[in-house]
Amino acid sequence: MSKDKFTTKRFLSQFKQCPQLAYDFTDEQILGEVNRFLTFIGYEMSEPPNASKLKEKPAFYGKRVTEKGTFVVTGTLIRDMNEGDEGVQRLDKLKEELGDDIDYIMAVSPCNERYLIDYMCKDNYASYKYIMEKKYMLWLCNADEKSVWCCFGAPQDKIIQEYFKFEGGIDKLFHMPYRKEAKQLRKDFWKDDV
Fold first, then answer.
1. Sign of CA dihedral 190, 63, 145, 79
2. Taking a C-beta distance cutoff of 8 angstroms, is the pair 33, 146 a contact?
3. Which one, of 55, 136, 64, lies nearest residue 97 by Cα?
4. Quick one: three-class SS letters along the chain?
5. Which of 57, 65, 76, 86 could form a disulfide with 90 if both were Cys (CB 3.0 to 4.6 A apart)?
6. Beta-carbon count within 10 A of 112 CB
7. pLDDT of amino acid 192
8. pLDDT digits 0-9 by tens, 14-45
9. Of the candidates 37, 81, 79, 80, which has an alpha carbon nearest to the alpha carbon of residue 60?
């Protein structure tokens, strides 16, 4: 047993050797799984309106019409969390062109959680704060298991949540009471009285 003081940073550094992706799917496989998932729920996959005039082309675009209104989702594919910032920039461009009333998604092969957490925590949680502020989502899509998990964010169309592989996302880690930053994050995003 080591006599060194336990630190979370030292503990987590042991996991940096794991591969970036838990599964390695092609963009076509990820796109196929996103389309399969959304079609199964009742979304009609198509091109966005004025698609030829868009500067940023979405990887996918779907619409579901209900009695309560119309829900639209669109998004982009990223290879792994090293492309997270590029994916967010593409979503920013899409949001600028298509508007705020749409759910914006980055879809990726299942990553090891270590890399998701590193990405969200970098620069004093800048990525996490930005994604939550913009109401973007990060979906892990497993083409072998035919499953999708929303690990960050939440859709406006609540029926989608019923079909995710797991309830809730990894963003719960950022609100656990033992995290010293949890209190400030709750203040910033949920206006809790902490």
1. negative
2. yes
3. 55
4. CCCCCCCHHHHHHCCCCCCCECCCCCHHHHHHHHHHHHHHHCCEECCCCCHHHCCCCCCEEEEEEECCEEEEEEEEECCCHHHHHHHHHHHHHHHHHHCCCCEEEEEECCECHHHHHHHHHHHHHHHHHHHHHHCEEEEEEECCCCEEEEEECCCCCHHHHCCCCCCCCHHHHHHCCCCCCHHHHHHHHHCCCC
5. 76
6. 16
7. 47
8. 655 666 666 678 999 999 999 999 999 999 99
9. 37
pLDDT given at position 177: 44
In 3D, which of 84, 71, 56, 61 has the Cα closest to residue 140?
A: 84
Residue whose token pair is 């309560």:
68
Estimate to the nearest angstrom the gap between the alpha carbon of 140 and the chain centroid. 7
Report the C-alpha gap between 60 and 37 in whole angstroms. 12
The CA–CA distances, whole Å, from 132 to 41, 81, 148, 181 equal: 24, 16, 19, 16
Q: Give which of 73, 68, 80 is closest to 26, Cα–Cα.
A: 80
